[in-house]
Amino acid sequence: MSVEARADVVSNVWKLLTQPGAEVAKGDVLAVLESMKMEIPVHAPEAGTVSEVLVEEGQIVQEGDVLVVIS
Length: 71
Known about the structure:
This protein is mainly beta. It contains no helices and 8 strands. The protein has strands at about 5, 10-15, 25, 30-35, 40-45, 50-55, 60, 65-70. The strands form 2 sheets. It has a 4-stranded antiparallel sheet, with no helix packed on it. Strands 5-4-2-7 form a 4-stranded antiparallel sheet, with no helix packed on it. It is elongated, with a radius of gyration of 11 Å. The termini are close together. About 25% of the residues are buried.
C-alpha cells in the first residue's frame, strides 16, 4: 500500500528534502512549497520508503497535485 503527499495550495516547489529510496517517518518534512512569500512544509502522512518524487524544484503545482509517493 502506498500513500501520497499532496500540495494543499497552488504554489511553487521551493525545496525538495527527500529522494526515492529515502526512509521517512510520519511527520517528516518532504518538501517546502512557497505561495505568496509564505513557506509551506509538506509532511509525510505515514512512515515508509519514498518510492517516487513527482515534482522538481521550481515547478508550479496545483492544489491536490501529488508531490511524493511513499510505500
